[in-house]
Specification:
75 residues; alpha+beta; 2 helices; 31% helix; globular; UPF0033 domain-containing protein; TusA-like_sf; TusA-like
Amino acid sequence: MNSDKIVDAKGMACPMPIVKTKKSMDELRSGQVLEVHATDKGAKNDLTAWAKSTGHELLSTAEENGVYKFWIKKA
């Protein structure tokens, strides 16, 4: 999946993946896609809930070698 920006939050514990995601999302225009990489298992629930609460669309998730990947479309 194509993304407009990638956030590397690997090795960070909650709430840092959300903090970095929010900061990066603020730099994108509506309709652009942010790709987030995290190793914190809680990130899956956290980013899903964050996207829903902020109106952004979680397009897809994947796990690769212990790295959780998220693609979030800016509202």
